[in-house]
Every structure is written in C-alpha cells, then in structure tokens.
Amino acid sequence: MTTGPETTMRTSPPTTGDLLERLRARRWRLTPQRRVVAEVLRGEHVHFTAEEVRRRAVAVMPEISQATVYNTLNDLVAMGELRVVSLERGPLRYDPNIEPHDHLRCVSCGRLVDVDVAGKDRLVLGEADRHGFAVLGVDLTFRGVCPACREPRRQAHRARRRGAPAADPGADRAVPGSPTPPA
C-alpha cells in the first residue's frame, strides 16, 4: 500500500511463526512463558511497550511474572530477534520485524507502523558532519496523523466552518498523555 511518493507501508513483516521458527533454529529453549511472550508479538506492525507485552501475556498465562516477560524481551533483543524502537516521547517499544525498515508514527494516538523508505540507501552524511563517528545505520521515523485521528479533526473543522460548536473543542489539539484542560 503506498502512503506517499517516497514511503510504502510494509504488508508482510515477519510473523510470530517466523519469530518462533527463528528461535527454534537457534535451539533456544522455548519454555511455555517464552512462547507466550513470542505469541504476544504476532501480527503486522507490532510495536508494544514492555508493559503492553506483560499485560497481554498475563491475559494468556496469568501466572507469568513481570520479571520473566522483561527478561525474555531483553534476551530476544540481545539475540537480535527483537528491535528496540525509541521514540522522542514515551517508553521503548519492541518490534519483532528485524528486516530493515523504518516507522510512521501518529502524533495524536501514538500508532506506529512499519514502512519502507524509497531512496534511503542514497542518504549520505558528509565527512565533516560525521564528527569522527563511524556511521552504523539510519533509523527514520515519519510523523503524521493517522486516518482514525484525522476524522475527528475533520468533523471539528466542519463544525467550526458551519458555526456550530465542535463536540470536543480540544479534539484537534489533543496529545496522548497530556493533561485535559479544565472545562
């Protein structure tokens, strides 16, 4: 699916089956708890925080401990089977898609999706701009507003144009995690 002239949304990132297959190929001991953590990381565009992984794992296996979930995530990162995604705000997220890719993040709700960036291989950082660094890679995160968040903004805009008050006057300015202004 094309999201712009230079970005395409990834339609088939590695699935949990792929992660489990990779773990089996490594002969990693798949305890029931580790399997649950791997299964929680299934699906397309999965970018859960450690707390989200823990909550979902507990829903499947109530006796799983927080330490086991966190240790499993750390082990998978150390093995290169999970990527850590660090955004400018909020907790770290874990991405089972270890293929080269970048991200598109909704600035309103925080939704994060995998994207392939056309022309990324042509990005060059000049010698003077490297300041002696050995460049190891580039991670890009595009920011925007997803369709689900954009629709309430459109409705509020239409209501203002008609002179009618918007259902939620702050809906077009809301940022997740920010305090709600007093009424």
CATH architecture: Orthogonal Bundle
| Residue windows where pLDDT falls under 50 for at least 5 positions | 1-16, 168-183
Percent helix, as a range, is 25-40%
Percent range for β-strand residues: 5-15%
Radius of gyration from the alpha-carbon trace, in angstroms: 20 Å
- Coarse structural class: alpha+beta
Q: Give the overall pLDDT as a whole number.
A: 81
Multimeric organization = single chain
Strands, total number: 7
Q: Largest beta sheet, briefly?
A: 4 strands, mixed
Which descriptor suits the 3D outline?
flat
| Total domain modules | 1
Adjacency order of strands in the biggest sheet: 1-6-5-7
Provide structural commentary.
The chain has helices at 16-25, 32-40, 50-60, 66-78, 127-130, 147-162, and strands at 7-9, 48-49, 83-85, 93-95, 102-106, 112-117, 141-144. It is an alpha+beta fold and 183 residues long. The protein has a single domain (7-144), classed as Winged helix-like DNA-binding domain superfamily/Winged helix DNA-binding domain (Arc Repressor Mutant, subunit A, Orthogonal Bundle), CATH 1.10.10. It has a four-stranded mixed beta sheet with strand order 1-6-5-7, with no helix packed on it. Strand 3 and strand 4 form a beta hairpin. The chain starts with 6 loop residues before the first strand and ends in a 21-residue tail after the last helix.
